[in-house]
Amino acid sequence: MSLPHPTADQISLANVLAVLGDQTRLAIVGYLARNEGVAMSCGQFLEFGSKTNLSYHLAKLREAGITSTEMSGTSRLITLRRSDLDRRFPGLLDSIVTAARDIPQLERLREES
After folding, report:
1. Which is more confident, 35 or 68?
2. Which has the closest alpha carbon to 100: 21, 38, 37?
3. Is 67 exposed, middle or buried (0-12, 13-18, 19+ CB in 10 A)?
4. What global pTM score does this model have?
């Protein structure tokens, strides 16, 4: 089973900005950026909300083209689509990640690591 993802050319700035207007999704992107290159399972985001809530937010990020979700057995592995985003909107992701550093959820995670 494969989940639908937009192609790099289908990623729109309006959708990316709209999706990242939510603090939880912004915190998830910040967390993925801090752990770049490592595929994260859904369970690693439980700090950001309930499973149902996370499922919703992760779907929104995938549908906007911000993340990629791959099925691995019964797990879903999430990664940031940095290369696609950097190619479409140079410098945008770095600016977003810099702004996300002050989000309370990320502050708690930083203190715990």
Report:
1. 68
2. 21
3. buried
4. 0.86
